[in-house]
Write a structure and sequence with these properties.
Blueprint (H helix, E strand, L loop, with lengths): L1 H19 L3 H4 L43 E2 L2 E3 L2 E6 L12 E2 L5 E3 L3 E6 L4 E7 L3 E7 L6 E7 L3 E7 L2 E7 L15 E8 L3 E8 L2 E3 L3 E4 L2 E7 L5 E9 L3 H11 L5 H16 L2 E4 L3 H13 L5 E2 L5 E4 L4 E4 L6 E2 L3 H4 L3 H8 L1 H18 L6 E2 L2 E2 L8 H10 L7 H14 L12 H9 L24 H21 L3 H10 L7 E2 L4 E2 L31 H4 L7 H7 L3 H11 L8 H7 L6 E2 L2 E2 L18 H15 L15 H11 L1 E2 L7 E4 L6 E5 L5 E7 L7 E7 L2 E2 L4 E3 H5 L2 E8 L34
Helix pairs in contact: 5-19, 7-8, 8-9, 9-12, 10-12, 12-13
Amino acid sequence: MRSLMFSLVFSFALSAAAQDLKAPVDEVSPNIGGIGVLLSATKPFVQRPFGMARLYPITPAETNDRYLAQQVHGFPAGPATLMVSTAARSTSPASYGSTYDHDDEVATPYYYSARLETPGAFVEYTATDQAAIYRFTLPVGKQTHLVFSLEANAAIDTLSPSAVQGSERVEGAVTQAVPSAGETRQYFYAEFSHPLTNVETWQGTAMGNDSTRSGDHIGSVGDVDGSVRTIEVRVGVSYISTAQARRNLQREIPDWNFDKIRNESREVWNQALSRISVEGGTERQRTIFYTALYRSLLRMTDITEDGHYFSGYDHRVHPSEGHDFYTDDGLWDTFRSLHPLQLILDPKRQVDMVWSYVRMFEQSGWMPSFPSVAGEQAVMIGHHADQLILDTYAKGYRDFNAGLAFQGMRKNSTEATMLPWERGPLTELDKVYFDKGFLPALRFGETETSTSVNRSEKRQAVSVTLESSYDDWCVSEFAAALGKDADARYFGNLASNYRNLYDPRIGLMAPKDASGAWVEHFDPRRGGGQGGRDYTTEVNTWLATWGAQHDVAGLINLMGGRDAFNAKLDRVFTEPYGTSKFAFLGQFPDATGLVGMYAQGNEPSFHVPYLYIFSGQPWKTQRLVRLMMDLWYNDGPMGIPGDDDGGETSSWYVFSAMGFYPVTPGVPVYEIGSPIFSKTQITLANGKRFSIVANHVSAKNKYIQSATLNGAPLDRSWFAHSDLSQGGTLTLEMGDSPNTNWASAPGAAPSSMSREQVLLGSSSVSSGK
């Protein structure tokens, strides 16, 4: 018995030691979020951080919840789909698909493998920045094919039995802002470790021996010699040319060494994730945390190739001139916490992202808000490059052309339409915003007559007014920093426009028609039709009301002071739906992760729990952020509360788990929440370290009793970016009951437009004005 007991204890000790030695990359579970709570699911991407080569199982399009798919059609080879199959030759890519089981799958950020049940094969792959390598273990006694397929406006060229190349047009961008005609294509070049035989190509339903094909629904299929048990495929990708795709492959994967590339990619990810180290917490919390951090490092995409990049904004190839070119962003989401997190971890990369936006403005004439590799997309609302640029500048990172950036910001704010899902010049509705201080809504029962409005997306007048006010505040602050006093005053006045839609009768924002009259019969819970789009963007005004985060003090004043503000904010988390939950979610499908009217699954909510810090009740923030993390994030396929939107929903968790959050990008401070780890250490790009130490933290001990910053007492629930960037330690004493005195004084509130004390960071690099 003693021997058995010793063996059990020793085994437990080894297990604990192994857990302690577990690397951050080994904590990541890319299948988290593979089932969407209501809308989009995630994919288990294998790619380098911000890399061009992005690999994942391609499942049937009709299976929105990828993790539930029982069949895989293939894997990305740039724009092509690559698959190994024993099925009869066909011109239908789906016929080459295979069933697969997640129990036979390994998914990591750097490596993926799965058993392909139908052919009896085994697939593995890993990636570099601009290339990928696949390894297929083939079945015995079956004729196996290697298949490449492309969908639309594509080309394929069989160069030899051991190489193929091709391209496909990238769709999805608006063209009205592009000054020259052209198209964006993604190219690939692939080599095989063993030559193929009997290679045929197809287009539509016609199969033949043509070595090249172009058009829609094209592909190639070739046999693998029956004596070959393992075949590898190396693929280079490019947005410049097939020749550049080949150069990218030769530079990054010059030989057939799968394991070497896999190990290098693992180390790249481990170094990136190790920038934040955590102690304490549960294994589940560490898995969620590092998976969220992994998802926060996938976008934007660096498309710089050998010092050059193709721009979808003028359809030309440009030299990068020392600043890599990034695209693929959704600023309506990502300005909130994704970009601020990336700025902390790698400010030079963030500066290059700002440079990219400035170059897009130079090349197209407009500052984009939702850039893709093919150009600007007409998606969502707002001109939130303003927040990205101001936040970067305010935190002291200024190695970009600030004067040109301001030109683009100013042009968007004065000449570009604010209408949802539209791009182009001002409309008659935009002019009402400048004349009367709000975007007008339709009267009750009125039919849309403006040809400028996107009929499916409607006007979203309340949300557009609030978010444009925030945009204008950013332009005003940037103008002031650049010494443009007249512009600072002009846009500063526009920044107060959100106040024009505050209805004191309901204590919330509400729509006005073009005459300035309140829209009759307005319901702040269920008004606005599907998605609230008549008045709001994906939420109702119970949530949209809090979208003026540039002036929380102004909101407090509008609502009659801190007590009234807190009472209304309390109701956000308890307000009933006014109908069944089924009907409410049917109207607001983006409002997942509900706690009352609050929706953790949708981005306009993310800063709302932190607003108590501005109104003297930070302990409510501490309770609520813990509730949201515990309730709506987990380590399984349904582990993300809503659309991840390129990592934005994940980045909220990373910040909140560390214990702080950027309520107002553009103001260089962070509001303090409630960390879940006993110690979090951020290794900064300058080599310094910033730590958050939470003494006695636990599931119950979520309330801050007192705090010190670098040993000095801290009686406010925020700290400056300069405190973080210079390195140091924030120490929090945690307890199981709120300390209602800590950080509750009016003077402890963070900065707001109505109580201006913005702390622009000191310049760490040249201003570039």
